[in-house]
Specification:
Low-confidence stretches: 1-27, 480-487
Number of helices: 23
Mean pLDDT: 86
Structural class: mainly alpha
Strand order of the largest sheet: 2-1-3-5-4
Radius of gyration: 29 Å
Strand content: 5-15%
Number of strands: 5
Largest sheet: 5 strands, mixed
Helix content: 55-70%
Amino acid sequence: METIRSRLKLVKQAEPVRLRRRTSQLYSREDARHLGTGVWRVALCSVAFRLANCFLVQTSFVPDEYWQSLEVAHHMVFKYGHLTWEWKAGIRGFSYPLVFAFMYKILALMNCDSVYLLIWLPRITQALLAAFADVKLFYLVQTLENSHVSKWTFFCQLCSWFTWYCCTRTLTNSMEATLTTLALFYYPLPGSTTHSRALTLMSSTLIDCLFYNKWTLVQFNFLKLNVLHGVADFYGSHPWHWYLTQGFPAVIGPHLPLFLHGCTLASKRYRVLLVAVVWTVLVYSCLPHKEFRFIYPVLPICMLFSGISLAKLKTWRRVAAYGLLGTNLLAALYTGLIHQRGALDVTGRLQMLCDTAIASAAPQPDLLFLMPCHSTPFYSHVHCPIKMRFLECPPDLGDEGYSDEAEQFFAEPLRWLGLSFPSRSSLPTHLVLFDSLEKEISPFLEGNKFVRTATIFHTHFPEGRVGGYILIYERHPETDRTHYSDP
């Protein structure tokens, strides 16, 4: 008995058992250090790639790229420019243009507001934001999956031709895609964290009220005019299946087979992201007016599924990767460097007219754009208070005396020109038009001594009122001879 008691006493006095802490490679300091180094490498690679992306996109896409961002910022800071009907109807928010207005204001205070900086500084900023989103996407997949999947997701993101084409443009859709990628990082998926930002909507509303000088809820006005009143239909309509048969396949491009394959391989926790993609496409399919860029914000989510697919492939991975890179590269370079570049090149020629007039103390040019409305950038890319006019085309908002000037012109060009310029003293000094219109208004050009001074390539695929070349005509009253420059 004493022996038993002594043993029990020894047990009670014994030191508490201490379990040895396991060393896990997943949480080791060395692994964390490698992870940090990898992220920095990805960050530097992404920044370099997106900066190159920025300067290798020298074409135009849609008018909103300039007219709803840079042109508004230019008007805010330099007090001249053009605000489209959307700003008069209160359906556009000032938060996005305000970012560029801030840059313009700093450049103006430093007396560095050259056209080059006004054009490229916003683009560079957009490129850096896109690079930041790329890194966040890589880091998110690294956290949720592993380095293998994150590497292929990052590869898919950089390969995407449509991301290359859009991410550095000053489009609200480009910013939406960037914010969508950042939102994925904070979305409460397993392995990620979440933060509440109701504050963002409040700040945006206050900014809009400040610049509109009245209480304005832009989101409500936008929904009321474009959806409930069908104003968006004025800019064209498409069948309900357009996104399924054309829009989405074009935007995702060669990634489509990988995306579909990745959807079958992804775990159940990613179903909510797949639902978000399907829901977005279906909702936009219900609206008559459709554009490729509207569904661009879901593209980063699609890259996640494409990365999962490439990571799981074994035999065909190398072939798929090279095929993905090659096909996307051709589309990216063609659309970024060639297709629809004339709209930007012509503004450089027009800006030179202003410089020449200032240097020679000659009368300032008077420009008239005889093109579909908003075909080119405006004062934000010329940055000179010369007289410029284009054919306006606001939708019918029930205003008294409504007139679609562009439609009236293209219905009867010569009649419109005759009524608009009854005397030679009222004629503009320069005309800017597509070559598809040249033959139709040639009597007006020849009769008023307009001479073609520039022929600028625009696209290999002219369509309707948009020609393959943009022409600049200058009025020379002193000569009857017509000169044609080489294309």
